[in-house]
């Protein structure tokens, strides 16, 4: 349930109403707007006396939230969330470009790519230290060694780093070392991990699961929000359908759906979404026009010899050409490129 207050309500009267509502057995989350406040009622609201609340002189409207996700719901927080990471903003009005190799392969590799992508306008550097793979025989990442290489690249370029976490026992280390913690598609419903990440205040990049509905995706975000961490970036990375030509089916309509349903920023991964390097440019441009708050693109200095996902990685030269085109579209769409 959401209680919308009248504009310019005195804080004393608002606090009195909150105390009255909480005496009914629910908790209240306050969202401050530019002119008014919204009270989100969390808990079992079936027994709440709606007439009693609506009769209060400071109440403008009462709405019932039908969706199971509450804190991620736009009704609870009408103003879009903007997340700030080391002075860079992700969210409404800003466009971020997260880029780098699928896997960190060596110190020289990640540092050279970092220097190239920064030169061409990247906002964040991504790289996998740990890699969840379908096959146990595929390259699994360098682990903590790869994480150290990422940190060195950050020191040399100033680019904040994004890397994927695999298990709850690594949360403390990732909070210390990584600027944005990525939760991969395979871990979207690893609820133990999500709860642990919710206890931190570190920005979380939450990828959509392989076959997850939009509601399931937002419910996973709810697990993190419910523990107190509001720093969540959603990432559409394609879903599994009957189509086999592309690696996944990139659901750009999910960007519009999330923007309608939630206040959380959403970015698009055209690399995993298609699995084909030659499609990345067009899908990146489509993401801008669809209203995404950013893209995450795989860039490798030698895709043909990449240890992971070379077929969907573009070269630094191709990234430079792509950024020239993206910058124009971002400006047309009235957003500011962060970087």
What would your notes on this structure say?
This protein is of the alpha/beta class and 339 residues long. The chain has helices at 11-22, 50-54, 107-119, 144-157, 171-177, 191-198, 214-226, 253-261, 270-274, 277-290, 316-332; strands spanning 2-5, 27-32, 37-42, 59-63, 83-85, 88-90, 94-100, 124-126, 161-165, 180-183, 204-207, 232-236, 266-268, 294-298, 336-337. The strands form three sheets. Strands 7, 8, 9, 10, 11, 12, 13, 14 and 15 form a nine-stranded parallel β-sheet that branches. A four-stranded antiparallel β-sheet has the order 2-3-1-4.
Defining traits:
single chain; 339 residues; alpha/beta; Alpha-Beta Plaits; TIM Barrel; four-stranded antiparallel beta sheet; elongated
């Amino acid at each position: 349930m959401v209680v919308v207050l009248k504009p310019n309500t005195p804080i004393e009267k608002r606090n009195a109403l909150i105390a009255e509502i909480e005496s009914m057995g629910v908790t209240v989350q306050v969202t401050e707007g530019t002119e008014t406040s919204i009270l989100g009622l969390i808990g079992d609201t079936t027994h709440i006396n709606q007439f009693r609340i609506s009769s209060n002189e400071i109440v403008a409207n009462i709405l019932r939230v039908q969706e199971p996700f509450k804190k991620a719901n736009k009704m609870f927080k009408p103003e879009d969330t903007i997340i700030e990471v080391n002075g860079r903003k992700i969210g409404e009005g800003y466009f971020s470009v997260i880029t780098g190799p699928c896997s960190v392969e060596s110190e020289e590799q990640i540092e050279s790519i970092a220097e190239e992508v920064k030169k061409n306008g990247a906002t964040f550097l991504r790289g996998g230290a740990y890699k969840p793979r379908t096959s146990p025989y595929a390259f699994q990442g360098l682990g903590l060694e790869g994480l150290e290489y990422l940190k060195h690249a950050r020191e040399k370029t100033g680019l904040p780093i994004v890397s994927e976490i695999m298990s709850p026992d690594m949360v403390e280390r990732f909070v210390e070392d990584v600027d944005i913690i990525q939760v991969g598609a395979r871990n979207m419903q690893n609820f133990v991990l999500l709860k642990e990440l919710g206890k931190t205040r570190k920005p979380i990049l939450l990828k959509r699961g392989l076959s997850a509905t939009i509601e399931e995706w937002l419910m996973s975000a709810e697990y993190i929000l419910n523990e107190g961490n509001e720093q969540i970036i959603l990432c559409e990375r394609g879903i599994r359908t009957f189509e086999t030509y592309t690696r996944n089916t990139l659901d750009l309509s999910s960007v519009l759906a999330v923007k309608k349903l939630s206040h959380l920023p959403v970015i698009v991964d055209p690399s995993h979404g298609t699995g084909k390097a030659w499609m990345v440019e067009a899908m990146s441009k489509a993401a801008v026009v669809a209203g995404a708050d950013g893209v995450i693109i795989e860039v490798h200095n030698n895709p043909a010899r990449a240890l992971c996902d070379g077929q969907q990685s573009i070269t630094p030269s191709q990234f430079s050409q792509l950024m020239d085109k993206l910058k124009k579209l971002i400006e047309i769409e009235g957003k500011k490129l962060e970087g």
